[in-house]
């Protein structure tokens, strides 16, 4: 039996143990955006390092320094660099993933505790981070452990880079990659990242593009303390009123960004590119059903995809400092911070985006004649990425996908952002493949996030099959 078949067999046998490992890591609430959870983020990084070291990998913990989170100075969680195998006759694959997760509270609407993995009868493994990105990060580890257990030689040398700040702007990571490009990462032939999702629920894909993200806080401050609205309403400039007005000026109800100049930087779609939207397995019916209500703006599937992959969008996320609890509090909040972000596309420049957004909001605020103070703060930014899917690294990914799922993968782009992708490509001068494990309805960043047992188990096979394909692929072709 071929090595890869033996590997698949053992993955099938060990399914329940793999689910238990996912349960163990979901239980570590490694929320990078919450200062109180920072020790858990560090604990999660340490868990990964310990497990890889137990397997025999050489690891290096890099502490990226400090972070200023709303005035609180915090240690950034460690970046775990690793090397598993160092055979000069083998190719070297660098894998990246993140062990931090988005915030999750039961009161957001989760059916069960977000940090307790629940296996549902329909095969869903529900828990924060199950698909984004703990399942895939475990996938690489379990792949290597299974090879060892089965006595199968790893087909490539593996390097890894796991960070704990991806969901909060990957602070400090770019500098580490630049610094380590000719050191720890030296000898890397290709990079593979498993941190995005299929286009639908059944057909796997390979991904060759990501949007960038520019995240902003819009702060309005007025009186020195919250006020009684019966006493002061109508007599003072209210920060919340100014903020709501400004937020309403950013984007219209059909998703069109109102900031002048934003669309000027967008690269036009060519006829050749237009063809890449043909024959993808993607349907509005399935999407609307996943969304529970048909709230789609566009009539055609290709327009939805273009607005996900190829055009900039602006989303409003929330307001800090505003009254939000149940009950009827009659307060005038003294200081509020609206949060919004733009997803950016070729050829948008983050600095230009920040300049246009800031100027526009300053102009709109000036029109109000308000005596409040307004400030636009860009909290984090990451660049878009686009790559040709013709590279042999993608051929290896496609062959592995066919071996595991029996179908040729779709070629997709991703609406979300993994800013470090471009940093790897530029500094290591190697091809980067995005090889997703999860499905379109996994609910990353949302309530009841899940990964299907099928995607998790077949995904572990997929990552292993990919490494075997890379070993047999001429990467220079
Ligand atoms: C696609 C990836 N799994 C992801 O979720 N990326 C995040 C990155 C981010 C940027 N700011 C906060 N998080 C995303 O696209 O939102
Ligand atoms: Zn995410
Ligand atoms: Zn992610």
In this entry the ligands are:
the ligand C[C@H](N)C(=O)N[C@@H](Cc1c[nH]cn1)C(=O)O, zinc ion
**Number of DSSP helices?**
14
Instruction: Assign the CATH superfamily of the largest domain.
Output: Zn peptidases
Strand order in space, largest sheet: 1-4-8-5-9-19
Mean pLDDT across all amino acids: 97
Number of domains: 2
What does this structure look like?
By secondary structure, the protein is of the alpha+beta class. It folds into two domains: 3-210 and 385-471, Zn peptidases (Aminopeptidase); 212-266 and 311-382, 2-Layer Sandwich (Alpha-Beta Plaits), CATH 3.30.70. It is 35% helix and 22% strand. It is built from 14 helices and 20 strands. The protein has helices at 3-13, 15-26, 38-55, 130-150, 173-180, 229-232, 239-248, 271-275, 284-290, 301-309, 350-368, 392-405, 420-428, 453-471, and strands at 58-62, 66-69, 72-75, 79-84, 92-98, 118-119, 124-126, 157-163, 190-193, 205-210, 212-221, 227-228, 313-320, 331-332, 335-344, 373-382, 385-386, 410-414, 431-434, 450-452. The strands form six sheets. A six-stranded mixed sheet has the order 1-4-8-5-9-19, with helices on both faces. Strand 6 and strand 7 form a beta hairpin. The protein is globular. The two termini are 29 Å apart. The structure holds ligand L7UNP4BN and zinc ion (ZN) (2 copies). The ligand C[C@H](N)C(=O)N[C@@H](Cc1c[nH]cn1)C(=O)O binds at residues 132-133, 166-167, 169, 195-196, 213, 215, 416-418, 444.
List keywords for this structure.
477 residues; alpha+beta; Aminopeptidase; Alpha-Beta Plaits; four-stranded antiparallel sheet; 22% strand; binds the ligand C[C@H](N)C(=O)N[C@@H](Cc1c[nH]cn1)C(=O)O; binds zinc ion
């Amino acid at each position: 039996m071929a090595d890869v078949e033996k590997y698949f067999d053992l993955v099938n046998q060990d399914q329940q143990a793999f689910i238990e490992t996912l349960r163990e890591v979901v239980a570590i609430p490694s929320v990078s955006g919450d200062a109180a959870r920072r020790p858990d983020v560090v604990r999660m990084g340490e868990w990964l390092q310990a497990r890889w070291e137990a397997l025999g990998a050489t690891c290096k913990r890099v502490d990226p320094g400090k972070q200023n989170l709303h005035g609180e100075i915090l240690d950034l969680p460690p970046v775990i660099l690793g090397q598993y195998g160092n055979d000069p006759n083998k190719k070297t694959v660098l894998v990246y993933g993140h062990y931090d997760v988005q915030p999750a509270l039961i009161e957001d609407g989760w059916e069960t505790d977000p940090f307790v993995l629940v296996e549902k009868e329909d095969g869903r493994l529900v828990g924060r981070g199950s698909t984004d990105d703990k399942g895939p990060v475990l996938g690489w580890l379990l792949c290597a452990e299974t090879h060892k257990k089965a006595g199968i030689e790893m087909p490539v040398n593996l390097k890894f880079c796991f960070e704990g700040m991806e969901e909060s702007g990957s602070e400090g990571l770019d500098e580490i990659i630049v610094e380590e490009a000719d050191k720890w990462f030296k000898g890397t032939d290709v990079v593979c990242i498993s941190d995005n999702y299929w286009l639908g629920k059944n057909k796997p894909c390979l991904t060759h593009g990501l949007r960038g993200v520019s995240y902003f806080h819009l702060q309005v401050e007025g009186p020195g303390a919250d006020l009684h609205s019966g006493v002061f309403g109508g007599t003072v400039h209210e920060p919340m009123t100014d903020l709501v007005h400004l937020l309403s000026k950013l984007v219209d109800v059909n998703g069109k960004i109102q900031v002048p100049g934003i669309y000027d930087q967008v690269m036009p779609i060519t006829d050749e590119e237009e063809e890449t939207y043909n024959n993808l397995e993607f349907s509005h019916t399935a999407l609307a059903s996943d969304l529970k209500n048909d709230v789609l703006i566009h009539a055609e599937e290709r327009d939805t995809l273009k607005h996900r992959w190829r055009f900039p969008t602006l989303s409003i996320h929330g307001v800090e400092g505003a009254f939000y609890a149940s009950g009827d509090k009659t307060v005038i909040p003294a200081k509020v911070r609206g949060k919004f972000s733009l997803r950016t596309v070729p050829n948008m420049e983050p600095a230009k985006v920040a300049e246009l957004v800031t100027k526009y909001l300053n102009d709109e605020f000036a029109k109000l004649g308000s005596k409040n103070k307004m400030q636009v703060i860009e909290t984090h930014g990451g660049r878009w990425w686009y790559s040709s899917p013709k590279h042999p690294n993608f051929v290896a990914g496609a062959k592995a996908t066919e071996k595991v799922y029996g179908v040729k993968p779709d070629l997709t782009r991703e609406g979300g952002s993994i800013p470090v992708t471009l940093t790897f490509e530029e500094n290591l001068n190697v091809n980067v493949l995005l090889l997703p494990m999860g499905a379109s309805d996994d609910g990353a960043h949302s309530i009841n996030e899940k990964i299907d047992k099928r995607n998790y188990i077949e995904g572990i096979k997929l990552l292993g099959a990919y490494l075997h394909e890379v070993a047999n692929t001429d990467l220079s072709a």
